Fold these 2 entries.
Entry 1:
Amino acid sequence: MQLIAMFRKEIQILLSNRLLIFANVLIPILVICVNLIYTESAIIDIKVGYYGEQPLDTRIKIKISHYSDEIVVDFLQYENEKEAKEAYNRKEISCFMHLVDLSNIDIYYDCENQKSTIAYQYLIAVLRDINAEQYTKELIQEIMEAQTFVVREIFYLTQDKSEDLNPYIWTGFIWIFVYNNLSLAIAQMQQEKNTKTILYLCKIGVSKCNLFVSKAVAGLLQFILILAAFIVVTVDLGLLDFHFWGPQIFLWLLACVCIISIGHLLGTLINNTSIQVIIQMLIVLPLMLINALQTSVFDTILKRNPIYCCISVARSAMLGQIPSNIDIGICICTITICYTIVCLYLDKQEPIKLCRLR
């Protein structure tokens, strides 16, 4: 009965701030939508300069305009090479051409600059297409017969989505698994201390097991709500090919409880709100940075970090894979150690000091 009463209390506290729940559900979804809109609407504008005695062939402008809807190429004319170089140094153009005569064109570009390289590749492709238009069937046949290798482009090759998911999804998962659970767990302990409820609970001898089980269950309910909404939206947008399998739920709950236990530990031991926020940022931001960089360079450094192991477990579950036993073991040990420290701290610390009564 005591556990049920405490669970009801936690649910009432959780539901009392519906705006916060709505924000927690909306933020990761909103981030994905904004990134998708920006990516789909982003147009690369490339400007190419040219100079010379000969006019620019109109076929180059026409063909290059039909190559891609995402890349727009404009041509700017200059009097000589000096003007073209000055324009490039001012970053007004990505590369420039010298129209030597009717059949010779020199292209100046920077192979270390992305826009300059794209412009060069487009120009080469266009010029090859224009050259190919002049080939007779007999000449094409002779060229094909003279080739040492014949290369065919195969378009039906695709990557398995389960092995290479959109990085936006992992950003959302890091937010849901780490930041939401961590901030909620810290807020739960701060709420107990700020409202002096912990003083009452300690006086009546409430079981610490019941105390933290009720808080963890409330955190799990919010987690399930947010995760379900996130999966529904990402599947609807075509970013996630989700397939449910049995161990997935257990692994997600394990990762969630592990993060919650760390949050309860921080919320119990640290009273300064600013320090708590700094610690949350130090935990979450590096994970998001690693995800954004799409690198595994830091795996050897972070692979035994409890937070990193939680993400690894959740990630493996999302991909339909069994995580390593070491990661699962670290999650279980983290839960045990955190709650052991919290219980020992609450037993030895006077309740009145926990509440910071003056």
Entry 2:
Amino acid sequence: MPLHMSILAAALVLWAIFGKNDKKMKIAYFVLVTLIMAFVCGSREYYGTGDLPKYYGVFVRNGQGSYADLFSGDLKNIGFWVFCKICYDLFAGNFSVCLYIIALFSNIALAVLIYRHSPKPHISYVMYIAFGFYFFTFSGLKQTMAMAFLMVAILAILEKRQRLFYVMAILAGFFHQPAFIFLPAYFIAARRLTKMYFIVLIAVAAIVIAFRGVIVEYLSDLYYDEGDYTASKLIGGKFVMMVLMLIAGFVLRRVDPKNDPKFCRLFSIMIVAAMIQSFSVFGHNFTRLADYYFQTIIIYCPLVLTPREDISYADAGDRMTTAAAYRIATIAVCVLAVIYYYSYIEDDISGVLNLKFFWEV
């Protein structure tokens, strides 16, 4: 438990030290946080519980075979298996090196996205860690690579780089097939929030509900070889947090496509994330699908908690009241995130509590 909480504390303490208005200090902050998170993530042992022993077995089996063998079988997630084969050949079958590469790649992608688009980087890291994205990278290797590519895709959405978006989204799908669900994200983010937009969302929701059995079985086949799946009894705390963040964004930041297009793009994606998450009552794999959209929270939340520069205030008192409201909102969001994070760790959703690190064995 101390290690899991210390990662979150490090992101906040280092920001207090380096998070000044000096560019070099901010870069130092990102470098330090990236190295710490990548080092801890890459240093876990792959023996014991969780999915890592399975990944190691496939890593060795594919590594000892040929590239022709990889392409002669099931091509699902072929990008990841080719990556593993390359690592096996280059590093003499050392799986630990592969883990470090994945950890470094995912954390560099995260740092670049936050550095370029987050007005409050420390809040971005709190969101990334508290909502379980970081510790999921300890066990879900295919998903980790896919989500790293999609972080670059999110950057492309915010910078209106359509070609880069589709390259990254397709690469993500080759590493983890369910990530192809993110392909419509660019189109979704570019749409205005009109009545027709919500009608389409309702229609999609109705289709999912009507064919939920087939969809859940298909998702289970994508995620697990044995085909088992379970449905949640409740939608869960994550969905509630999504809805609260949407409400907070609507109230605090407002939805203004003309003057605040970046936020509106993220707001549209967050709506889709909440909708997908709500389907977790039918099968828990919907949560993993939702995460591909929900990871935009790392930029969305800091924007919600930052006053817009294009809004003028009547007087100094109004400005002070607004500033106080944003400070209170920031504290409230961080407290709720930490509570959720503590529950996440206690439930050991990603199976990280039983992991060992090289300094423990």
